Description:
The chain has helices at about 10-15, 15-30, 40-60, 60-65, 75-100, 105-115, 130-150, 160-185, 190-210, 220-225, 235-250, 275-285, 290-305, 305-330; strands spanning about 260-265, 270. It is mostly helical. α3 (about 40-60) runs antiparallel to α5, α5 (about 75-100) packs antiparallel against α8 and α7 (about 130-150) packs parallel to α9. Benzoyl coenzyme A binds near residues 119, 145 and 213.
Amino acid sequence: xxSQGLLAIDAExxxxxxxxxAFQARIDADEKIEPNDPMPAAYRKTLIRxxxxxxxxxxxxxxPEGNWITRAPTLRRKVSLLAKxxxxxxxGLYLYSAAETLGVSRKExxxxxxxxxxxxxxxxxxxxxxxxxxxxIGWLVDGAAIMNQVPLCRxxxxxxxxxxxxxxxxxxxxxxxxxxxxxxxxxxxPEQKEMAQDALNRWWWPSLMMFGPPDGESMxxxxxxxxxxxxxxxxxxxxxxxxxxxPQAHHLGLTLPDTDLKWDKDKQSYEYxxxxxxxxxxxxxxxxxxxxxxxxxxxxxxxxxxWVREAALEHARKRRERSMxxxxxE
Length: 330
Ligand code: BYC
């Protein structure tokens, strides 16, 4: 466990009104909060929750696309998909490291994930049935991720904000990789265009759900906004995503699976249909099409990797021992 994350614990034990007001004043002045700074216990807890869920999402997010690496249609597609999935592993690692600065270990976070207690993004509990799904994920899922994550580059917690800058740069390559697949399919044979349409039909609504419950039901939003962890509400980001993505679907010549979708001239934005929130909560609560399969895959990877962790620790111990011996000999 990272000791610096614990240094402010004394301050947390005395969360006087003056302490809380001074902390909020730093947030209001757009100062970055760093790991050694005193912070309210609830701020720390909120960040551990959100960054941990985000890290798990990146790691679990490797599974649906990993399913197509061996079946990518060309060498070029295989290389870019491999790079994308590898980037997601990297994002997970930056994020676990950012969470560790708050005093939680990666082991603890992983145990939460493989025991099924930790949440991760609902979107990764759906199957990837065709190659077009890889295009739809890059275009829609990474597109939604960019919309949500660009504001997180300005989040009040320094290590999270800095990690997000690199993550967002890589996400934009991912989004283009996906859209390019969709463009190729959309101008291809009728069967290819049909595959692209089918993927859009299946991924559209789950992508809108990625932004979280409607504002009225979002229990964390108010506090997270006050602390400048969140800069926009769930519904605001969802609307921005719809407005950016609908013209892209039109460019592809594809139809969005929403008969209520229409342009609102006064608001200069799209009105969209009712989201099936019952379906969303079913997936969030562990009963989506692939929840059990995803958690089982992560559990197996953690168990299979045990010998690597043991070997690395043993190697570190031997290096420490050798360095102490050579210091003693000097
Ligand atoms: N799925 O009060 P709310 C990626 C939970 S990675 C599951 O609005 P908050 C990518 C929420 O956690 C994508 N659970 O919460 C990777 C809370 O439950 P708890 C991940 C969800 O935190 C690889 C409850 O519902 N991105 O894009 O204010 C390849 C109430 O919600 C979901 C991030 O994690 C969901 N969709 O707002 C490609 C970004 N939505 O914790 C792409 C960082 C809500 O009380 N996270 N819940 O048990 C965030 O921005 C925010 O945490 C959220 C939710 C907007 C997701």
